[in-house]
Amino acid sequence: MDLRAADALSSTGEKPNAVGASLMAEGGEIGTMMRSVFGALLLCLGAGGPALADPCKAIPDGGAAPAAFINGRTFQGRVVYVGDGDSLCVAIGPVLDQLQPKNWVEVRLDDFYGPELSDSGGQSAKATLRRISFGKRLLCNGEKQSYDRVVAHCTLEGRSVGDLMRQAGVREGGRGRRR
User: Fold this and answer.
1) Per residue in 148-157, pLDDT tens?
2) Is residue 130 helix, strand or coil?
3) Residue 68's pLDDT band (boundaries 50, 70, 90)?
4) Domain map of the chain by residue range?
5) CA 49, CA 3: separation in Å to the nearest integer?
């Protein structure tokens, strides 16, 4: 899609989702045209779209995690996708780079074990994590790689995302739960 098509799409009168609205409000960081492109993309990725199968590609399937995401390294970015009650994608890099799934890091929260999607409470846990985090900037401290994701401790405005999930009443229960 070229920039004119994206601009036309974003001027249809539809409101952007939380990430798009937040980025568009960040004036001076990018020009009007670029905000339109990002807003249009996020309209397509918004809450009503079909589920994506592992859209985060900063760590390739079966590949090694870049050192910038593990061993105590800190990274930050906006949440652009929530997979379930304890995993999400964080978009990293300059705003235009955040449009590409190759710059989305899949994060497995280190301090919360959400129920599996197919288990009781799984869909509700995912919806709660989405409500808490989608479109917001997280600060994450990467620990290690687990499959094609990073296990990390993430905070939102200084508060642990796991603590926010428990505070919202989501019960833990995933297969990796510490007992």
Assistant:
1) 999 999 999 9
2) helix
3) very high
4) 3-45, 67-167
5) 22
Fold of 67-167: OB fold (Dihydrolipoamide Acetyltransferase, E2P) (2.40.50)
**Closest among 87, 74, 171 to 129, alpha carbons compared:** 87
**CA 148 to CA 113: how far, in whole Å?**
18
Which helix H or strand E contains 125, and what residues bound it? helix 122-133
